Structures are given as structure tokens and as C-alpha cells.
Amino acid sequence: MSLVDVIRSSLRQIHMDEVVLLQPQHCTSFQKLCDVYAQGMTVTKSMLDCMAIGIATHIAVALEGDPLWMYLVGSPSSGKSTLCELLSSDELHSRPISKFTGLVSGSRQGSHLIPMLQGRCVVVKDGTLLLESNPQQLANVYGELRDIFDGSLEAHYRNGVSASFSNISFGMIIGITERIYSLNMAALGERFLHCRLETDRAMETQRNSAAITSIFESSSRTSLEGNENGDSRGFPQQRAHTAGFLSYLHGRLRSEDILRPKYTQYDLELIQALGDTIACSRAQAPRTKDSASELLYDARPEASTRVVKQLGRLALCLCYVFGVDYITDTIRKLVTKVALDTSFSRQHNIIRTIALAQDGLNRQSIAMLTSIPLETMSRRIDDLVSLAILVPNDTTNRPNRGRAVPTLHCAKWIQTAFRLVEEQINVPHIPNSEDPQSRPQSSTPRQSPTPQKNRPNTKKISHPSQR
After folding, report:
1. Nearest to 310 by CA among 195, 191, 187
2. Over the chain, what is the mean pLDDT?
3. Of 250, 251, 249, which Cα lies nearest the Cα of 30?
4. Would you state the pLDDT for residue 287?
5. Counting beta carbons within 10 angstroms of the beta carbon of residue 241, is it exposed (0 to 12), middle (13 to 18) or buried (19 or more)?
6. Burial classification of residue 191, based on how many CB atoms lie within 10 Å of its CB (0-12 exposed, 13-18 middle, 19 or more buried)
7. What is the number of alpha carbons within 13 Å of residue 5 lying toward its C-beta?
8. Closest to 444 (Cα-Cα) out of 170, 313, 261, 244
9. Given Cys at both, which of 101, 244, 289, 384 links 390, Cβ 3.0 to 4.6 Å?
């Protein structure tokens, strides 16, 4: 056998999509991953919560059905880019993108982005650049996203270029600033959930002190000057363990039967209440775009079906992240966090204030309780009345003399939803390892026991951790 034959027999085909630059480190638990983060990073509870939610979003792409798309919302320099870098470390299942301007190209020289995203989680480190686009380009991008969310997209351009895709599914995590709250897509059907990365002054100063100390005590040369350890800004050890954990979870989803987590009737009712809360909080009344800004017609909030399925999928994937086979109190807390972060708005604050009141509130009382100027709030209340979220009542507590001051109530189903969510917020946190009471004995939904006295809503719901 000649040397050429020996070389030819040794050649193997290489799929470039499977070539990785970062070698994953073995990691099979979220707790171990958190321990690795603590070794070289200043971590906060909010950061770990966002990381758990991000990992759950990442692995959801392996499940059939609607994908999970998440905005990672935070102020500048809050740590969004660091989390996005960590979440994109699994190169086989991620597609990091620095600048996102659309999915398909109308240029004959351009190429479509969709084939490169199939079956992966797209991680966009800075989505705020997208908000800087002109309104037409922004509308086109979100129109493409709405289409591809359902699995297919058809695009035809005047120059003859066309794009046709079907059976497409990919996850999305977009790091973005709070400017995203100026973009309300509820009227067209919002597809993204929100996860806020919170920070405070104490944690900011602690992180800054650690950074300054690192500069003074641990500065080294760059790789161009002969440093073989790589760029420490990328947290190579943390990225390697994140890649290992993501690869482990994707391997479980690929090789094992899909988890069927145990749950209670309370979990079903909580997710429904969270979906209703989101639908009402981001509902938008149609108004003219002129200076008069008059209401065009009486609309209704979006149906909560899509968002309820997204929250249910998030809860399932969080079971994989924490290595449990039932809905724990920690998972309820994180799903509630995502729902409230998605609902984050002045409108949510107004509805919540009225829903939690024992009796109806007039506009002056609402303005005082929410610290929102009366002029600003009055227009929002007019919208909520038009949407049938608020119901005015001028017959209760009518004075003997003078004009009646109408009070405002929430529709009954909205009041029930907001009160259930408020109860969940106030439930004491129980770690997963100390959460035996929240574990049901069977996967069949069961009737909840009699509620506690003085409970604000009339439905029979009892939190598992309170049993």
C-alpha cells in the first residue's frame, strides 16, 4: 500500500458545524455551575435567577411546539452581555449574533439567516441596536419573527428574490435595555417574554471594588504578548462549565424520554393567572396618531393561550435545570418572576392597585397610591375601561347630595388573577432541597383543600407549601 493510499484511508469527513473552539467541562448540576461562577465572578441572586431562566430558554428548542423567546432586560453595564456570552458558550446548540437586523435578505448577493438558526438558540448580545432602526425596518423584522414563531415564513421581493421556509424552530435570547418597554407589540401579538436583571447600589459598589482590585493585583499581558491563558474578560472557566452543563441537558433531552413533571391544581391555576396578568398588563387600546389621540374602537386584551403555553414550557425546562421531576416552589417563583417582568409597566401598577383594593377606587385615590400624576393616569384608565379591564361604578356609595364620584373595579376574572399572583409573591421561599411539601404524590391534578380564611378571592386555591 502506497503512502497516498494510507493517507486516503485515514481521511474522515468533518462537519464544520460540529467543530468547537471551546472545550466543555463536565458539569451535571446547576448548583455546581453556580459554585464555579462564584470563584471568579461577582454573582447576585438576580444573576443566578436569570441564568437559570436563560438555560431553560436555551434547552426549550429541543421540545416540540412553540419556541421560547426571551428578552434579558437590564440597565447598561448590569451584566447582560456577560450572561449572553455564557449562554452562547455551547457552540453546538447556540448561534451568537452581535447585530440582528432580520431573518431574510432581499438582496441577490445576500444570504438568508434562517438556515443557520434551525434547532439552535440564537443569542443576541445587544438588541438595543435593533430599536434604533427606522419604523419600517423595525416593523419588517418583527413581522418576520411573528411568522417564523409559528414555524414557517414566506417572503417575496420586487427584485425577484424570494424565501420560503417551513418546520423551522429556534430559541432566542436577546440582551436589551429598558428601552424595549417603549415598544408595545401586544396589538400584533407579542412573542417574547421578559426577564429583568436587577442590580442595586450595594451590589454595584461591591462589583466595582472587585474589578478595581483585580486590575491592581491580577493584571497580565494580552495573548498577543505571549499570554497563553486567554482573555480573562471572557471568563473561560465559567464559559467551559456552562457549555458542559448545556451540553449535558441537551443530551438528556435527546437521549431520554421527555420528563413528565408532577404538578398540582394550584400550578395550573397559577400559570393561568400569570397569563391573564400579562395579557391585561400589556393590552393596548387603539388610538389615532394625531395630537387629539382619540380612541378608535373598543378592543379587548390578547387571549392568554400563547403566553400560558410559554410559561408552562418554561416550568418544564426549569425542572431539567434544577434536576427535579416536580414543580417546586423555586420554579413557581421563577415563572412568576418572568410573568411579572413581562408585565412590567405603569399599566400593570394601576390594575394591580385596583385589583387588590377591598372596594372600588376613584381616580384621585389611584393616583395617590400609584404615585402617577392624575393627568397621565386618567388617559390610561380611559384605555383600560375601553378594554373592559376596568369597570366604572357610580351607584355604590352614592352621596345624598351632589354629583356621584364613580369608582373603578377590575373585572372579576382579572381581580382573581392578580390576587392569586400577589399571594404567590408573598409565599416564603423554600429551597428545592427543603421543599418536600410542594411535591405531589401523582401527576393527576387534584382538588385543592379549603382555602384559608380572609382570602381575597373566592376560588378554592391553596399553595402547596402552605399545606
Report:
1. 191
2. 83
3. 249
4. 84
5. buried
6. buried
7. 2
8. 261
9. 384
Listed in sequence order, the residues at least 6 apart from 464 whose beta carbon sits closer than 8 Å to its beta carbon are 264, 266, 329, 437, 438, 439, 440
Report the candidate in 186, 175, 217 with the shortest Cα–Cα distance to residue 75: 175
Alpha carbon separation from 199 to 84, 87, 448 (Å, rounded): 17, 20, 37
Instruction: Find out whether 123 and 173 touch, Cβ atoms under 8 Å.
Output: yes
Q: In percent, how much of the chain has pLDDT > 90?
A: 45
Model confidence over 282-332: pLDDT tens digits? Answer: 998 888 877 667 888 888 888 999 999 999 999 999 999 999 999 999 999
139's CB contacts (< 8 A; 6+ apart) are none
**203-223 core/surface letters (b: 16 or more CB in 10 A; e: else):** beeebeeeeeeeeeeeeeeee
| Domains of the chain, earliest start first | 22-199+233-255 (3.40.50.300), 265-466 (no CATH)
Q: Choose between 5 and 415: higher pLDDT.
A: 415
List, as one string, the DSSP characters of 260-316.
--B--HHHHHHHHHHHHHHHHHT----B-SSSS--B-S---PPPSHHHHHHHHHHHH
Tell me the pLDDT tens digit for each residue of 196-236.
Answer: 999 888 888 888 888 888 888 877 777 666 666 655 566 88
How is residue 361 annotated by DSSP? B
Q: Closest by alpha carbon to 180, among 383, 345, 372, 52?
A: 345
Instruction: Name the pairing type of β-strands 69-73 and 94-97.
Output: unpaired
Q: Is 339 helix (H, G, I), strand (E, B) or coil?
A: helix
